Each structure stands twice: as structure tokens, then as C-alpha cells.
Fold these 3 entries.
Entry 1:
Amino acid sequence: MFQEVRWHGRGGQGAWTASELFAKAAVHEGKYIQSFPEFGPERMGAPLRAFTRISDKPINLHCAIYTPNVAVVLDPTLLKAVPVTEGLPEDGILVVNTRESPAEVRKQLNLTGRKVWTIPATDIAVKIIGKPITNTAMLGTVARAVSIVSLESIEKAIKERFPLKIAEKNVQVIKIAYKEAKSE
Amino acid sequence: MKMAIAKQEVRALSGDEAVAYAVKQSDVDVVAAYPITPQTIIVERFSEYVHNGEVDTEFICVESEHSALTACLAASATGVRTFTASGSAGLALMHEILYVTSGCRAPVVMAIVNRALSAPINIHCDHADSMVERDAGWIQIYVENSQETYDSVIQAFRIAEDPDILLPTMVMLDAFVISHTLESVKVLPDDIVRKFVGTRQIPLVKNHEGKLVPFKLDPENPVTMGPLDLYDYYFEHKRQQEDAMQRASQKIKQIHDEYGEITGRRYGNGLINPYRLEDAEIAAICLGSTAGTAKTVVDQLRAKGVKAGLLRLRAYRPFPAQDVTKVLENVKAIAVMDRSHSFGAYGGPVFHEVRHTLYDAATHPQIVNYVYGLGGRDMPQTLIHEIYKELQKILETKRVKKPVRFIGVRE
């Protein structure tokens, strides 16, 4: 097993945190990991990317990720702003925060092949956490979309990372997202 | 006696965090650092340990890197264990004191996060900052990943403080690619690291009365360090530094091996880390994290039947000339990869060293130089494949068309 995930977010939305939590969850399953952001000028709201590599074996690669297995979009406005499917192979998986259906996303991106998953992550986050921070909802969706890391391991990583009350709310978020994610 | 491998815990740590954790476990007495960029998370994390009372280290937050190293040097001269971290412009500002530290034989340990030098301003990885300091009398160790960062910092205290060596030691990790990348790192229990690093041993020297006293600043047994030393003795002192460097080669191997017995982890022989070189006809040579990507490329080429190998230089000072010559004795075409450049020179610094080392090799291998990755430019597998493709061509034609090349740059 060797998987590469690319996270698209905007500064302040927690894309790097998502990448880290995903990696730390994989460590709980005895996997080898890498998690790194793309560093540029750090500005709130600016598009940014973060990356996760997960493998059964030690990871030697120390270059950028060009052809991820999974691309995750934390902010629906990024679909038009950045090339979210760049390098995504034919059997790649696109996971998008949007109220729209996978078919509508496919149409918007003029996308053939691949698998598309959607989740209204902002709505879930606002409802449960009270803030539009979508990274944990996206983690729950990714857990459903690909069998790289289990929901339980993600829950464990969240509990280690955040104070109890915040962790509990985020665990609620990942569970809802896991259940409500849609694909076609 | 064979020791049992210690039980180790896997943690997700960035290279920076791996350094801070290794320093935390190594019972360091004084850490002095300047906290602003190009400084990294290393001292931020370590200052948290100090704040939380997890270490009893004296943490001195100074006003510049020049002062950071001066404070470490002065503390080290009193016989205690010291550490600092820097990179890029910060390391450049230390330049003067680097020589004072090695000249005073103060075994300071420093982590360098390799970042490009200005201008233009750039915070990303290349090796220009530490390459320019290769002549400063410090031992230099370049690491490949976060795990090796952790392992090498612990080993560095033993190397630097060994009474037969007494040379300051730098551990170099690539900016962002290692420093800010979370990786799986196996960490040792505190007590095992403590036992491995031990307490600093102070050798005895003759004082002005001919009496043997510990080589440290101590009012009970005064000695002088770093005084005026003109043409009467300066040269002898420099010669002693060179002797210490030569002794360090063997010691680095021994300490690396001793650590390997405890952890089960080894990086070649501690000086060089060869990969699939046994029957290789072509090979690339590099330092740092690029070696990991290159290993993957070598595996792909091997699967196609290409006799490709890789040599990573772990120690750059002392330069492992004998080991390099030995391990490359059957390789016919070699690409030396430099992540820095000496402007106006005939190739990059690693190229100079390797080509010069192999001048007397019986096989007279063909050698080509590739300068790559300046300012953090990514070195993907595709470009490394290009290098090996050129090596195959050189192997066939027995000719290097253009010995010094730049790769991955718009020209």
C-alpha cells in the first residue's frame, strides 16, 4: 500500500492540520507517513496545498507529490480557482466540500473518469463546531471514500490533538461526514 | 558483547521536532539561540520543554546568531554540554565564531536547517549555507530524513565531546523537505539516550606550571583558551585540529556502530551510505534528502536490469576519501549532485571533492556534475532519471560531453 493525498484549502482552514491528522491516524495503524505543506507567503484566505504520503514500508521519496491518488478540496470556491484535478490519475479520487452532488461537480469541472465524493462540510462544521473550519469533516469523508485509514484512528488522532471539548465536537463532525458523504 | 535492541516508540515528528526531542533527551546544559527566521521550530519546541520544566537546561535567548554561538562557545569552555541551531543567514552571521569555536576545541553541537542564502530572499533548501563553512573546522554530518536527524543529533554529542576529538559538530537537515515534514520516527527511552551520551568527559592538559589539569575554564585550575598565538605556535594548533579531524573518521564509525547496536538502525558505515553499489556500473552521489528519492529511482532502474547505484555522503567533514574510493572502485560512470554552487568554479563543491578523490582511482571513472535544487527547487524522480540516462550514455560512449551541468533550471 502506497497512497499520496493532496489537500487543497485556503490559509486558515486547516488543510495542513488535516494532512497531519491523517498522517498521525495512519501511525496508529503501524503505517509509515509523511505530511508536508507547500510553503509560500502564509496569508489568510490564500489558496494553499498540503500533502500526505502513507505506506506499509518506510518512505524514501523526498520530492513533491505530482500524481496524488486522492485530491481533497476543503473550500468549494477553490474548484474554480485552482487546478484541483491536476495530476489526478484515471482511477484517482476527488473529495469536495460542496452542497452540490458529485454529478454536478463532475459537470462543473468537465471531469471524466475518477471517482467523485461530495459532502456539505461547511454546513456540518458550522452546525456542530460553530465555525466554518472544514478539515475534520473532510477527514471523515476521506475515511469513507478511501480505505487508507479507519475512522477510529482519525478519531484517536483528533483526541490527541485537541482539548477534550473541541475534540468531542470534531469527532461528532467526522462521524456525520462519514455517514452523509455521497459518491457516484 | 551484543546488546539487545531497545524498545522504541514510533512518533510522527518533523525534522525540527526530532532535533528538539533528541536535544531534550541528551541532557544538554546550555542552549543559546536567536529565535527569528531563519531559525526554525527547533528552538521553539525546545523552549517549550524549558518552560514546562521538562529539562533543566539554561536557555539563553540572545540578540543574534553571532551571540548565540559565542554564548555556546563560552559555556562549552567551562566543560558543560551545549547546543544551538541555525541556518542560512544565521549561520553566515556565525562565520567568525565558527572558527573560534573549533580553534578553542569547544565541542558545541549545532543543528543546521539547510536554507538558501540571500539575495533574492529565500527560505527553502539548498546547501550553500553549510558548504561555505566546510573549512571552519567543524565535523559536518548530512542526514536523509527525520529518523536520521534524531539519531544523528544524539550521536553528535558523543562525537564532538570525545576526548580524542573535541571538535564542534554540525548536523545538517534539508529545510522543509525534512525540517517541516512530519515523518515516522522511532524514539528511544530517555534513560537509554542518557546512558548513550553519558556525561561530558574532560581531558587533562598541562597548565603553565606543567601540572595536569582538566581542559576547561575553572578558577581552581586556571587555563587560558584562545589567546594570542602568532607564528610561534598557531600552525601547530591548526595541525592538531587536522589530526583530530582524521581521528574523527574512525570515531564517527565506532559511535554510529555502537548506536546501531542499541537501535538496529545504521546508515552505511556512518561516514558513507551506499545503496545497491555492489555490482553497479553507474552511480549518483549526493547529500541529504535527495538520496531518498534517488533510491526509489535506483530501484526502478534495477527492476529494468540497469546496474545503477547510489552513494550518499553522510559525513562531509571529515571527508571520507578512502571509503568513497573503495566503494566506487568498480563504478565506471559517476554523477555528482551538488545542491549549491561555487560561482565561477569548475562545478560544485561536492564535485570538486569527489573528482579529486578519484583522481588516483585505478578505474579512472567518468565523472559528471549536476548542480540542482537551488532555493528549494524540487528534485523529482523524472530529473534523477535524466541523470541516470546520461550516465548510461557516458558508460556507452566512455566520454563526458559536458562535465558541469545545471538541472531543473530554466536556461
Entry 2:
Amino acid sequence: MKASVWNDEKLEVLVGKLLQAGVLFSAAVVFLGAIIYLIRHGTEPITLGAFHGEPYDLRTIRGILKLARVGRGRGIIQLGLLLLVATPIARVILSIFGFAKERDHLYVALTSVVFVILLYSLLVSV
Amino acid sequence: MTILEFSVLVCAGSLVAGLVGALTGLGGGVVLVPLLTLLFKVDIHYAAGASLVSVIATSSGAAAAYVREGFSNIRIGMFLEIATTLGAIFGAHLAAHVSTHAIAIVFGLVLLFSAYFSSKPRTQAQRSLPPDRLATRLRLNGQFPEAGGSRSYNVQKVPTGWSLMFVAGGLSGLLGIGSGAMKVLAMDQAMKIPFKVSTTTSNFMIGVTAAASAGLYLKHGFIDPGLAMPVMLGVLAGSLIGARLLIHLHPKWLRLGFSLVIVALGIEMLYSGITGRI
């Protein structure tokens, strides 16, 4: 029991640091996109009072990658936000490996269920 | 207002929200949506999208700090995340189909509940509860460091807690918030998990819960990069500063003041929703 607790903690500390790094990296990407976006569109008036929904390319992972690749500010911001959404998902994946290493089959299964639910949500936006 | 002016103002407002949210432990997300809709006149769908993104940033950003304290219980978190993520997907679907008035009204009620919950005196932790059969089979019972060794706890009422977590996830998906207060309620009050363990495990769950609705938010076009950008950067900076200060500071007056702000925003959201201004 003692060993298992220690393993949990070691894994958690590692995952925590990884998450923090992921958040800072995604923030850096968002910031880069922000600079491009503000330089190009900073002087235009803002229009968020009524909901129109984002243009199609900013709603799908494929569209976002396309826009980010050609250096569009809004595309790069969305890419950074996608990376941010990926951080908790990475945490879930790492936890599956952690539980597998501890031979905790029950929690490998339960954590995999969480992963499948997350995957479902992401796949609707491919 | 130009896009540049708007970005700077929203970023500053989000920084304050993130800072105060971290200092009071109430989370900044809950005031972000009212701030954006009432003050900046942003549509509530865009506001929820930006808030949801910032919730992920604070949860993942603070993970390392929380883990070091040794309170969070990863098994409780994972098991309950099945409920919160399913709820979040349900809530995110709902967000795309109900009127903005209805969202504003639910939001107002959640704000008032959060303020009430945070001002309520904490119930004394019941010690040495008998182990529950289901909790034991799920290996949810645990221990945490305390002065002079470690204290163990036995988790109670697993089905009740799980159901409350589904509701918490649903509110998170509907409103774009972390619904930390509701998560803590489910763990601390229903499942009798020690308060410290409940709050840190809740923080750990918030990011995963929010990630479950993020895909749907993106698909429905709720996530506007022009709004999410200043909000995410502001809240993240604010919460990181707040987490640094928190170790030395326990501002009671700030907590009280922030609760009053939440009540005022809750009433304003309710009023705006009922009169159809949102």
C-alpha cells in the first residue's frame, strides 16, 4: 500500500509539471497569434454583441490547422487554444499508463472510459 | 471600440478576475461571464466559450502546485470524471439549443448559490466513519498529510456524489464555468471527503470536465479567438500571480467582498435574463 501511494505521488508530480509546461506553451502560441491579429486588425471595430458563430474554418481542427499554417493570427490563436484543451486530455492518457504500471486494472478501465468520452467530444470538431 | 482597446480592457478585467479568484479560492471563471456580458455587452455564447478556455488554463496551470501539497486523490477524481464529462457533453449540447435568457437565469442562480455556499460555515469533518462497500471496492478511500502523520478517510454515498457530479458537469458545459463550488459540495457534503482533499481534487477535475465540452463549443462556434485570447491570457496571468501570493495570505475581507460582488452579479444576471436583456 505504501509503495502504491508513493507511485501515485511521483506520477502526479510529473504530470503536474507537464501540464504547467503545456499551459505555458499554449499561452505562448496564443500570444504570438495575438500579436499578428492585433497588428492586422487592431484598429477595426469590435463586433461580439450578437452571436453569429465563428466562420467554418475556425470551428474545426482541420480548418484551424489550415489557417495557422498560412500565418493567420486568428488561426494561430485557435491553435494555441486547441493545445490548451489537449493538456487535460494528456493528463488522462498519462494516468492510464500510470495505473497500468501499478497493475490497477479497474482504474485503467475507468480512466479509459473518461478518455473515450473526451475523444468523442473532440471528434465532433475534426 | 476598436479591437485593440477591447483586447486590452478585457485582458485587464480578466487578470483581476483570475487574481481575485485564486486569492479567494472561489475561481475567477464565475465572474468572467457576467463581466463580459453585462459590462462589455458580449453575447453570452462567446462569453461562455472564452470562460471555458480560461477554466482549463487555470486548472492545468495550478495542477503542479496542488499536487505538491499531497491532498488530491486521483482515483476519486478519475471515477467522478466519468460523471462530470458526460454531464459536460450534455450541458454543451443544451447550450446550443436553449435561449440566452434561460442561460442567463441559470447563471444568476448558480452565482447566488456559489456565494451562499462559500459564506456557509464549514461542517466539522466527521472522523472515523465506517468504510462504505462500494467506495472500498472502487478503492476511493485514502489518506492525506496532517500535523503529526497522516489521516485516513472513508468515502461515503458514492451514487449520490456521482449524480451531483453529473449535474456539476452539466452546469460547466451549459455555462462555460468550472463549477468548482458544486464539485466541492458533492465531495465534501455528500461523500464526506475531507475539505482539503475535496478542493484540490475538484481543481484537478475542472480541467478535464471543461475539455469535454470544449470540442462541442468549438463546433458550435462559441470560441471566438478575438475574445478567448485576452480572457485566457489575462486569467492565466492573474491566477499564477494569485497562486504565488496565496501561500502567505489568507484574506478574509477579500473573500467577503468577492462574495458580495458575486451576489450583485447574480441578481443582475437573473434580472437581465428575466427581462430579456441578455
Entry 3:
Amino acid sequence: MLFPAALGIGLPLGIGFAAIGSGIGIGLLGKGAMEAMGRQPEILPKLQVAMIIGFGFAEALTIYAFVTMFFLQGRIG
Amino acid sequence: MQQSLPNRDVLDRALRTSWIVAVALAAALAPARPWDAAAILAGQLIAFLHFIFLRKIVKLFTEKRGAGALEVADRSGFAALPFLITAKVLVVYGGMFALLASRRFGYAPLCVGFALPFLTLFLKSIMLAFGAGPASLMRRAKGGIGSVGRAALLVAMLAAISSSAPGRAVAQEHAAGTHAAAEHAKESGAAELPNWLVILHDFNPGNPVISWLEKNQVIVFAWIAGLLFLFVSWLAMRNPKMVPGPFQNAVEWMVESMESVAGDLLGEKHIQRHFPIIGALFFYILTINMLGIIPGMKSATSSLDLTLALALITFLYVQFWGIRNLGILGYIDHLAGQPRDVTGWIMLPVMLPVHVLGELAKPVSLSCRLFGNIFGEDTLIVVFVGATALLLKAGLSLLAVPPMAGITALFMMLQTLTSIVQALIFSLLATVYLYMMLPHEEHGHEESHAEAQATH
């Protein structure tokens, strides 16, 4: 297979897979945070901040894939 | 004010050093290439004036906050502030562009002249951070070391922010040359909604000023957002009262809630020192992001240039505080994963690269996250607007406009949410990175833990 063609197929697929991973991570985080909020509503502000930071770290994985795409995008031709 | 004195001291000494270096360089160059020597001196003069004005402006701001915060009568300082800012823009930036425009002076020696004071100030700050130099050791003995580094760092950061944008633009223009327009068209593969600069450019294709602005529109919009931010905060605190009016109340509420959110993470002691940069990052990014919702405007964070600059500022700030708090040996120890036992020392060759790479990944992920989110939202709206335009072209205006307008409005609401959340994530992650570098008191933590257990 030609290198540009392989890249053209692989890059979007790679981002998709990375997004699956961080999607699962964010989903688990949100689930845990929601449950905790339901049980103990008084810690809501503290929990929200921690949750958003966790989202940020989970999201970063997709962003690494995104950056890789930017590095290789020019070589699709 | 006790703090302003050492601040002026370090700035003065850095400027003095840079003058000495500049004169020495110019003297060395003068016999062979007199114009280059003059260019170095002229660049040095412009940068020197920049620092002088900046110091005056910063001093006016801080003195207002400190001394006469609740006094209505003391308004003379604020009359001087707009004057000073205008004078700074006219003299410094006007002079800079005049120098760059004149063909007589070379580009490289001018840049050397501009960069010299920044470089010396940067080196001085680093030396202060490492505790090197006899003068700083003496001051550490006196106990005033904290305020010096903070003030110098603040000045350096303000200088870097305010000076990097135009300089970069000029450099970019020089580097790209005539191919810039073609490359720009190729580079921005995804469509963007036209902002007022693009429209202005379309109506005046030949105008060099407008085409220059259009090419560097990210900088223009970043400046617009920054000025808006400054203007709003000035408007709110221009006439502070003990019982605030609605506007002042709203602004104070925003600042205070941000401070409490970041303070929960960072702790009571550190937030006082670090809130200026965290809050500035949050509100600046928020202003820029929100600017994109206004039709005809563009959010400058949808370009990697600006987000990378912000992330690098955060990165340097965090590393600086890490070195200052841990010391240079403690910093290396921190990077090595704090080896205390045999396992730690065996894992050292693995842990050190991992930690260094982790530190380097921080600015990348910070900048790309902000860029990706804002750019993605903008592209989403462009897609729907483009679809509406296509349907209108096909003569289906009755079918196209109501649902499409509804969808676009929905996504604009989502964009508002994204703007706030991304600004919050950026500043909170900066806070977390900072927290990792600061010494934490395990005592207070354990006590609160024990307390929590006791209540259960």
C-alpha cells in the first residue's frame, strides 16, 4: 500500500480509536462524579473542580493523537 | 511600598547591564559597520523605553490597588494612566515600526538591540531563582527574596506578552515574504467565517496595511480581547466603593469565585501569590473565546500560535517556581522521581526521561487542547452556515433558514459552554501543574483527613 494512502486511512482511524479511549475515561469519571454528588451533595463544588481537571487529563490522550495527526498530515500529499 | 524598591532595583540593574553590553557591542562593530552599531543602540533604546513605560504603568496599577483602593478623591493617577499607555504605544511601537521600516538599519542588529534588555532581565531572574550572585545572597539574608523574584517575573512576563506579538508578526512577514499569501491559503484548509478584517481586505485588495493586518489577524484579535479585558476591569474598579454597585459586584463575584476555585486546589498560602497569573489566564482566555461568538469577530485561540504562546508562558512560570521552591538539586530530585531506596535508584534511568517527557508534554497538551476545542467549535458552526448557504443557493430558503438557524443557535450555546469550560480547564490545569511543583504541607492534609474520619 502506498504510504500516503495508508496515512490517509490510518490518521482518522487513529484519532477515532483515541477518542474511544478518552470517551470511556470521561464517561467513567462523569459516572463516578455523578454518583458521588448524588450521595453527598454538599461536596459538589469541590467535586466539580476535580471532575473537570480529570476530564482535562483524559482528554489529553486524544489531543496527543490530534498532535500526531498534525505532524503527519502534511505527508498525505 | 516596600516591594517596589527591589523590583526597581533588579530592573535597573538588568537595564544597566544591557546598556553596557549594547555599548560594548556597538563599539566593537562601529569601525567596520557603523549602521549596524547604530541599529543595536537604537533597538536597545526602544526596549529600554518600553521597560521604563511598563514600570510606570505597572506601578500606577499596583499603587492604586494598594494605597487608595477605597478613596474616591485620588483620581489623578488614573488620568496619567491612559496618557502613559498612549505615549508608550506611540513612542515604543511607533519607534519600533519606524526603525523596522527604514531600509538603512539591518534587521538582525535591530533584533539584537531589542532583545538585549529582555535577555539580561531573564538571566537576572534565573540567577535570582538559583540564588546566585552576591547581591541576591545578601538580600536573601535580609529575607526580602520573595518579592524580588515575583516582581521581576511579573515585569518580565508582562514584557514578554506585550512585546512578543508584534515582533513575531514582523519576523513571520520577513520569513514568509511574498509566498505568504499563497501559503496562508493552503495552510488554512478548513473554511472560516469571514471576520471584519477579511471583509475589509476583500474590499481593499491593494492596501498594504490592511493586508498586513489580515495576515496577522490572530494578533489583532488577541489585542482586541486584551484591551477589552483591560477596559472592563478598569471600568469596574475605576471608582471602587465599599458597598459595590451592580457592575463592580458582578466583576468582583467572578474574580472571587475563580479565586476560591483555584484556592481550593492550591491552598490558602499559595493562592495569594499565584492568583494574578491564574486569574489573568482564565479571564484572558475567556474573553478571547467569547469574542468568537460575536459575528464579524474571531476567537484568536482557534490558532495554535496564541495557545502555544500562552502554554509556554504557563510552562516557564511553573518551571521557574519549581526551581525556586525546590532548589536546583531538589528540582532534579523531583524529576528523578525522588529515589530514596534501592528500587528508586534502579528505576532512575527509566524515571528521569519519563518525568522530563511528562514535563515537556504539558505545554503541548495545554495548547493543543484549547486550540482543538475552539477550532472544532468554530468549524462546526462554519459547516452549518455553509450548509445554509448551499440550500439558499438552491432556492430552498423557506426550508433552509428556520431549522438551520435553530441548529446554529444551539451550537452557539454549546460554544459558550465550551469557551467557559476550556478557559477553566486551562487555568485549573496550570494551577495543578503549579501545585505539583510547590511544597505541600502534609500536616494539614493529614489532620483534615483524620477530622473527616472522625466525623464518620
